[in-house]
Amino acid sequence: MKSGVTLNGNGIGATVIYCDNPSSNFATQNIIHCEGVSDIEISNFLIDGGWESLSIMHAASNRYREYEKGVYLRGCSNVAVHDLKMQYSMGDFIYCSRNTNNVQVYNTVCKPGHDSFDAWSAGDGISIYNNCWGTFINSCIKIHNTKNVQIYKNTFYTDTGSGNAGVEVMGGDVTGLNIHNNIFSTLRLNTIYQDLADGTSSGSGTVSNNIFYNSPSYNGIGGLDIVSTGNIVTSSYSCSRGTEDYGYVADNGTRNLPDYNGSVIPSVTFPADDSTISTVNGYVSISWSYLNATSYSINVYNSASQFDSSHLIYSLNTSQTSANVPISSTGTYAIKIGAHDDVHNSWVYNSPVSFFTVNGKKSATVYSGVYGYLTDAATGQPVQSAVITLSNDQEDCTQITDVDGLYQFTVNNEEGTYCLTASATGYHNSPELPVNMTGINTEINLKMVKTPDYSEPHYVQLYVCTDSNKSVPGCEIRIYAPNNDLANEKPNFCAWTNNDGRATFHLIRDVTYKIVTITLDGQKYTSTLTPNLGQHIITIPSGDTAAIPPMQTVISTNCTYKPINNTAAYINASYYDSSSQSSDLIFVLGTMSEGKTFVPLGISGTNDNVSNPVGVITDSFIVTDCSGKTYTVKISAQSQTYGAVYETVNVTVPGSNVPDVGSTYMSYFCVLILIIAGLVLSKTRKAH
């Protein structure tokens, strides 16, 4: 990857990075390698390691190849990874290291062989939310020596294997770690866990409003000041770690199982209470919701006051959360829903019961073929304007659902196997459903699941200008999130304005951030920002801004030579950035062809590539047969103040200035002999 690049596929089912021979050690390097880059986005495709299944993958002899990173981030900033999936791969899904800051990871699904997300001395400002990750060998998330990590609205679960943890802290300073509003489902060993083998942890954070469902509870992290509030444990899971139920048994021996059922009682989601609807082909679709139940009962009465067997017109026990009830008569009806509370092994019922009135009928003419209703899987309400496709090897037919979610295809009494699919805006595409046509009408009712409602990162362009509307380049902008630890001086996000006075950030709507703007002469201005627009202007006084300094006052280069003997010399080039805002420093030795074109010589130096230069950096090249020649060192770097910086520095090695070291010493020796001989002769003459 390079800075400013968006790598966007056509969707998880449409664009795939796939390995057709995983046993050949294909991924000895990272699949998507990002180092020292900024302002990148990776989204909307599938990474498939090619192992076909977890069981095949973990039966392989090389199953612990951790180096197969899906997305590898090192020294990066302003990164968004979303709507991505990785499956059947040995390594980690997303790996952050070495000062990688301001990373947003959301709407991803992962079934890896190792870890879903690693932050290893990554820096700070990482948000991980609205993801679904399964742990097989290790952990879904690992955090080591990384600050201000936000983990929320995720689902963690164990997939076949035992796994280790949903969130694992690996030591170091993890100040600002906030884990909230997640679901930890059926994890075997740990939910939130510290691995003491990797060193002690320090810092502070929160663990709040999480649901530990059929999983061990959270019992604290050694060395961390963690505030734990509002967490809910449902059902009991005997665990090999600690006491019999590992946190679910109180001191007096009773079970400590607070309720979490989404609602205290089952609730009818459609029809709405006291609403008036029409029957469609003599049926009314009824749906309901309740968490932690595996079985339900629905009873419908044709009375608003008497709920006995004489008024019962429909009864069903089901594991589903919806039913099509045959109702053709106008009148008022009552719905009574029972749900089995799996936590407490008891039945609960909606109270009061829900009512609706039928007034009118709708008929849908159905011909020979296939027909049915498309409804929302959660609410049971019709999904209109969806595209339904019926296809086989010879033809494709499409229909658009009407206001009642009805679709119908005429197949002219043909028999055979067809495929039925559905797609709608705001919903996940339905899986391909085989339909066996028998020459008669076939009713198939479909359900669709809505895509997650997430807080999408918001690309915000901040412009710094004076009150006279003059842009201010080179300004440092520091952004602090509301949950930033007051004792932590580091901002969540930081960038410098370009020549247009602009800097780009990934922020969240409806969140109020603290903004600190620092001009080149050190003046600080503090403001707040709620980034609900794509562009915002930060205004500072005209008299307190300094013009951007000339480049050479911030970035300086130099080139010298040092003789080795009469045929060889060192060419030494140096680079210095007094603002300490450079990255990706590269030295290349060459010559200038006809004084215009730079021609690399292909001679390596001792320090050709430096990711994050600090202080004066010098690169040395050894050249031979150099007497009288002119060399050029091309120096390139990425400056946060100026962008890409390129400098060419020349040095000439004069023929007379490269002495022969051996000849010099011999000359000195000969002169010394002559002086000694002269003194001896002088004393001899005086003696005579």
Automatic annotation (TrEMBL):
Signal peptide segment: none
A Pfam family reported for this protein in Swiss-Prot or TrEMBL: CarboxypepD_reg
InterPro entries for the chain: CarboxyPept-like_regulatory, Pectin_lyas_fold, Pectin_lyase_fold/virulence
Protein keywords: Membrane, Transmembrane, Transmembrane helix
SUPFAM superfamilies with a match to the protein in the record: Carboxypeptidase regulatory domain-like (SSF49464), Pectin lyase-like (SSF51126)
Segments crossing the lipid bilayer: 665-682
Record's protein name: Right handed beta helix domain-containing protein
Source organism (scientific name): Methanosarcina acetivorans (strain ATCC 35395 / DSM 2834 / JCM 12185 / C2A)
